[in-house]
Specification:
alpha/beta; three-stranded antiparallel beta sheet; 9 helices; 44% helix; 16% strand
Length: 203
């Protein structure tokens, strides 16, 4: 972070505004600043200010091109597996490749990476773990759902938590939650549903 300086008001934005634009928490913004992903400094009064240009550059990466939404709908079913557990990733991705070789599968190891990839292109189905570094599953789901490209995406939670440990109020009472070990037969049903839904679409 840069040293304390004063600058033109049009060149910076507050942390709160950056959170609203990027769809992430203040904790995530702080981590992005600490990693040098967003330029920031403190005013003489001790308040954090973020570079507007830096924040907007991240927003462009997250939002992606809006044209990708329609093109993704016309192609194969696109699935993202968002989980930091490489064993879970391997089991689920191997199953999808073997059972549904025509499905386009993308992997992400943390919430922020998943958000970036969701902004770069539309997905039909995303499997999201709840406990991940950088951005947890709860925050990732909120952020991904705010994207224009994800307005019709079906998001399914996969977790090792017991049912009573899952914050269903935050997830939404209608959210599907699958507990680990992964019920591959149920996951297969989700893929079949998405394939049938895509085949039934009229463009």
């Amino acid at each position: 972070m840069n040293n304390s300086i004063e600058t033109n008001v049009e060149e910076f934005m507050t942390t709160t505004k950056a959170c609203e634009l990027l769809g992430v928490s203040k904790t995530i913004i702080k981590r992005m600043v600490d990693r040098g992903e967003i330029e920031a400094w403190r005013t003489t009064g001790g308040h954090r200010r973020l570079s507007r240009a830096s924040v907007m550059a991240h927003l462009q990466r997250i939002k992606g091109a809006t044209q990708t939404t329609r093109s993704a709908e016309k192609g194969p079913v696109r699935v993202m597996v968002l989980d930091d557990d490489r064993i879970t990733q391997s089991i689920l991705v191997d199953y999808l490749h073997q059972r549904f070789p025509e499905v386009d599968v993308v992997q992400a190891l943390d919430g922020y990476e998943g958000l970036i990839k969701a902004g770069q292109g539309a997905f039909d189905l995303i499997f999201v773990d709840l406990h991940m570094p950088k951005m947890d599953g709860y925050a990732a789901i909120d952020a991904i759902q705010s994207l224009e490209s994800s307005r019709t995406t079906n998001i399914v939670v996969i977790t090792a938590d017991q049912p009573e440990q899952v914050d269903m109020e935050r997830l939404g009472k209608h959210r599907v939650v699958l507990t680990k070990p992964l019920p591959l037969d149920v996951i297969g049903q989700f893929i079949c549903y998405e394939k049938a839904l895509k085949d039934a679409r009229v463009f």
